[in-house]
């Protein structure tokens, strides 16, 4: 199993799904990825933790009664102080969507909107610091912000989360930067102005690893989901954009199995990123903000 220490501040550390139909999505994801699901009980709003083997990989919460927000995956970034991060985010042009709160003995959290409107969670660990299993089937392999205001997004995340973005491409046709240690980036930011359909807001997305993206995309449809962008090949692998049965969008990426007797490779070198954009192919299930 590939693992990493999620101790670097500002990096993705968790993903959870806000869903209008927990039972339907629980069945979908456990069958798609082979995850196990455990319910935290009424004390924590019946929050579901998904595990791949013994490893925590993602969570799921029921949407509040009366919510009109579309079902969506939320990416969380690791911070050392939620309250200080919220203050810094507001000063840098962000907004607070969910005020800081303590989740039992697990940690503290809040939800922000960056200057382009993309929602992002923040997590200050106490007993729980997020996922550690990565770069293998059934685990997170990449996180990506598609921004309608790329020029504002990079300074915001740099100021609030201490990012030092590495520019992958900076042309009028394609702007993309990665974040993370040199040679081991963990997330990307794309100037998506020219690619997002009209009315679709800036948003974060998670990529999950699968043995074969094309096969997994077909399985998504069998399980009641939808393929938003057919599997495409790039020099970095094969990927597909899909949605679960309630409309939450995510990506699939083929990951290579470990060589016998060796640890699995860490995430594919994202210095070249996952994205090979064709404007006619890019879709999303997220509703206009």
UniProtKB/TrEMBL annotation:
<protein>
    <submittedName>
        <fullName>VOC family protein</fullName>
    </submittedName>
</protein>
<dbReference type="Pfam" id="PF00903">
    <property type="entry name" value="Glyoxalase"/>
</dbReference>
<dbReference type="InterPro" id="IPR004360">
    <property type="entry name" value="Glyas_Fos-R_dOase_dom"/>
</dbReference>
<dbReference type="InterPro" id="IPR029068">
    <property type="entry name" value="Glyas_Bleomycin-R_OHBP_Dase"/>
</dbReference>
<feature type="domain" description="VOC">
    <location>
        <begin position="11"/>
        <end position="125"/>
    </location>
</feature>
<feature type="domain" description="VOC">
    <location>
        <begin position="139"/>
        <end position="255"/>
    </location>
</feature>
<dbReference type="InterPro" id="IPR037523">
    <property type="entry name" value="VOC_core"/>
</dbReference>
<dbReference type="InterPro" id="IPR052164">
    <property type="entry name" value="Anthracycline_SecMetBiosynth"/>
</dbReference>
């Amino acid at each position: 199993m590939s693992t990493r220490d999620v101790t670097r501040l500002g990096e993705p550390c968790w993903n959870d799904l806000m869903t209008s139909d927990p039972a339907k999505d629980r069945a979908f994801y456990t069958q798609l990825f082979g995850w196990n699901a455990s319910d935290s009980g009424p004390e924590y709003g019946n929050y579901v933790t998904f595990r791949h083997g013994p490893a925590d990989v993602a969570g799921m919460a029921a949407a509040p009664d009366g919510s009109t927000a579309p079902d969506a995956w939320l990416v969380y970034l690791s911070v050392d102080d939620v309250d200080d991060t919220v203050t810094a985010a507001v000063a840098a042009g962000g907004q607070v969507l969910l005020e800081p709160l303590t989740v039992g003995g697990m940690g503290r959290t809040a939800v922000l909107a960056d200057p382009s409107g993309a929602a992002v969670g923040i997590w200050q660990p106490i007993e729980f610091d997020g996922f550690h299993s990565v770069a293998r089937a059934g685990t997170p392999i990449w996180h990506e912000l598609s921004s309608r205001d790329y020029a504002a997004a990079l300074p915001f995340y740099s100021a609030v989360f201490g990012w030092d973005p590495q520019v992958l491409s900076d042309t009028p046709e394609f702007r993309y930067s990665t974040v993370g240690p040199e040679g081991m980036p963990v997330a990307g930011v794309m100037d998506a102005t020219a690619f997002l359909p009209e009315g679709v807001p800036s948003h974060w997305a998670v990529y999950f690893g699968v043995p074969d993206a094309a096969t997994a995309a077909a399985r998504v449809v069998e399980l009641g989901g939808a393929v938003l962008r057919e599997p495409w090949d790039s020099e970095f692998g094969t990927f597909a954009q899909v949605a679960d049965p309630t409309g939450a969008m995510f990506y699939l990426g083929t990951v290579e199995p470990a060589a016998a007797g060796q640890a699995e490779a860490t995430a594919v070198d994202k210095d070249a990123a996952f994205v090979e954009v064709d404007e006619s192919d890019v879709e999303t299930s997220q509703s206009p903000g």
